[in-house]
Amino acid sequence: MSKTLVSPLKFVPLASSALRLWHRGEVMSLGNVPPDRTLLDLLREDLRLTASKEGCAAGDCGACTVVVAEAVDGHLHYHAVNSCIKPAHAIDGMALWTAADLAQPNGTLHPVQQAMVACHGSQCGFCTPGFVMSLFALYQRTVAHGQAVDSHSAHQALSGNLCRCTGYRPIVQAACSLRAEPGQAVDEKAIVAALQKLADTEKTGANYLRPSTLPALLQARSQHPTAQLIAGATDAGLWLTQGLRRLPQIIDLTRVAELRRVVHYPQHIAIGAAVNLQDAFEALAADRPVIMPFGERFAGWPVRQSGTLGGNVANGSPIGDSMPLLIALGAQVVLMAWRKGRAVHRHVPLDRFYTGYRQSLLAADEVLAWVVVPRPAQGEWLGAYKVSKRQEDDISAVCLAVQLHVQDAHVTAARIGAGGVAATPTRALQTEATLIGQPWSEVTLAAAQRAIAQEFSPLSDLRASADYRRQILGQLLRRAWLESTEHNTVRLEALA
């Protein structure tokens, strides 16, 4: 069963395309939805579905969290997303749940809701719907498949939700108490069938382009060089809600099959631009386990599930966390375009990619398609550090990544990536020069600390002063020295 709705708008709309989704047992087709309409505004203002709340309108607090699912190989893959910064059209062809959709028609609560009640997990209640939806996504990923929820999984699932009443303990307790209820199982077979019918029906509309193949993406970019490219839209969503910008035409690359893959080669791995941050960090951590805790601090779970590594790199924010790490690893980006009837590409080292504040070598008709990361060489040591005011789901004041090769107590190679200290993510070339060829000692460390304090001229802002940033750079280098020389009491994880 399906129904067609016209979305009532309170402003003069941009040209719009139809939006199709599964919700509450049926397929909905929504007309008159502009390309830059956020999912939260669609739900609350157009459809009057008010279970999802607007808190920060910046993807930080999680009050707006909803769950979407797409059909992959006959099964549903569930993601908790921040609806305040998610373009509504980005969920075209997906299933959607809000906090009002979980209880059965007779009023029987979903196990997630019942656990929150039993553990007194609700405080003032404003943020509660977001917590419930994050736990629903966790339930569908784990408990529904017979897996137990431990404290770490609970904290990860809730890392994108902020409680204004500091009521985390009972909410985590509720998460860890979840048990599967057969009567509450999602009828995935029926939903997958409904979504497959949508996938078999071509989506039209020139204002929100959603190519499904790499050649189609490159041709769309060639034809529409001024359109806004988006992937997870965790940055672009802020332009809409905080910058009040309008995006009359969008090219969404998240459905491009070739770019949703991580390809493993003997000497490197290639991460497609549409691979989400969580999957990208897991792929990197397979070779370098130290990356996983760093990746968990990148942002909360909903942002890591929506945002992509390619988008973070292409956006080029000087406080983006992935770029210092990738610069330290010697990563390259593959830029692709459609020219003279065929796809062309070029490789650019990431430390040469940025030309200024949020500026890069990416041409108007190009797409950043792949991030290529070398596999670790024999004897590599890696440290990756983030300093921010809040432990979880916060933006860096300083980010530093250090890759070293030490042989016979001397530094034979070094690469250092830094963020938050210049107009672009950057490489600390002068500091590297003070290390290479020198004994890895406190004397060399002191020289490197002096070099890195002089190499950059950071700004003072609401996150940190310039002096603090310079001091932190030096102290993070010291931490790298301590860890790489096996002072195992540096990390709290090691003490635990």
Give a written overview of the molecule:
This protein is of the alpha+beta class. The chain folds into three domains: 2-196, Ubiquitin-like (UB roll) (Roll); 210-374, 2-Layer Sandwich (Uridine Diphospho-n-acetylenolpyruvylglucosamine Reductase, domain 3); 380-495, Enolase-like, domain 1 (2-Layer Sandwich), CATH 3.30.390.50. 31% of the residues lie in helices and 23% in strands. It contains 17 helices and 20 strands. The protein has helices at 39-46, 111-118, 128-141, 151-157, 168-176, 188-199, 214-223, 236-241, 277-287, 291-296, 301-306, 309-315, 322-328, 429-435, 442-455, 466-484, 492-495, and strands spanning 2-6, 17-23, 26-33, 65-72, 75-82, 94-97, 208-209, 228-230, 250-252, 262-264, 268-272, 332-339, 342-349, 354-356, 359-360, 367-374, 380-387, 398-407, 410-419, 426-427. A six-stranded mixed beta sheet has the order 1-3-2-6-4-5. A hairpin with a 2-residue loop joins strand 4 (65-72) and strand 5 (75-82). The longest helix is centred in the last third of the chain and has 19 residues, at 466-484. The radius of gyration is 23 Å and the shape is globular. The protein starts with a strand and ends with a helix. 48% of the residues are buried. Mean pLDDT is 90; it is low at 1-14.
